[in-house]
């Protein structure tokens, strides 16, 4: 049996106006990635990536996403993520923060990223202190369950 080699990309979705997109879902991000792949790499690129790309996790409040792709096609997915310009007709920027071969290592980086994002939300008074602590604990638990 052949093992599938994958890469996990930790992405940050930043909206131009700085506001939080509550209605955004992992499905919308996946469609934006596929549209970007089709626009920049054509039908051949989309056909190659379509079977291996998956959004494992997306949090619209912190803008964090974990995307899984085949090891050979991970650079194409990274490029397509960088070239995404809009999510649900709102101008945005997708930045790849970290790439890992295992989801466990990416989880550690994602938890650090979440803590920093929650601190920023708290500093900008988007969330109250109690909400921040509760959300940080809940996010750590959700991210920790990804490999289970």
UniProtKB/TrEMBL annotation:
**Which keywords, in A-to-Z order, does the entry hold?**
Hydrolase, Nucleus, tRNA processing
A GO term for molecular function: ribonuclease P activity
Q: Enumerate the InterPro entries for this protein.
A: Pop5/Rpp14/Rnp2-like, RNase_P/MRP_POP5, Rnp2-like_sf
Would the keyword Nucleus be found if you checked this record's keyword annotation? yes
Main localization of the protein described in the UniProt heading: nucleus
Q: Which Gene3D superfamilies match?
A: Ribonuclease P, Pop5 subunit
EC primary class: hydrolase
Q: Which domain of life is it from?
A: Eukaryota
Its EC number(s): 3.1.26.5
Q: Which reaction does it catalyse?
A: Endonucleolytic cleavage of RNA, removing 5'-extranucleotides from tRNA precursor
Q: Where in the cell is it found?
A: Nucleus
Listed Pfam families: RNase_P_Rpp14
Instruction: Tell me its family.
Output: Belongs to the eukaryotic/archaeal RNase P protein component 2 family.
Function description? Component of ribonuclease P, a protein complex that generates mature tRNA molecules by cleaving their 5'-ends.
- Protein's name in the database: Ribonuclease P/MRP protein subunit POP5
Q: Which gene encodes it?
A: POP5_1
């Amino acid at each position: 049996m052949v093992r599938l080699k994958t890469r996990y990309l930790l992405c940050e979705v930043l909206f131009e106006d700085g506001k939080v997109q509550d209605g955004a879902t992992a499905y919308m991000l996946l469609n934006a990635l596929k549209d970007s792949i089709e626009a920049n790499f054509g039908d051949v690129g989309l056909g190659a990536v379509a079977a291996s790309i998956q959004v494992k996790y997306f949090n619209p409040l912190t803008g964090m996403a974990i995307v899984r792709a085949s090891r050979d096609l991970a650079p194409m997915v990274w490029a397509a993520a960088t070239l995404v310009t809009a999510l649900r007709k709102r101008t945005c920027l997708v930045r790849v923060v970290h790439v890992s071969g295992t989801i466990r290592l990416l989880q550690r980086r994602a938890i650090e990223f979440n803590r920093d994002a929650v601190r920023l939300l708290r500093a900008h008074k988007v969330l109250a202190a109690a909400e921040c602590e509760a959300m940080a604990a809940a996010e750590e638990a959700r991210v920790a369950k990804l490999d289970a």
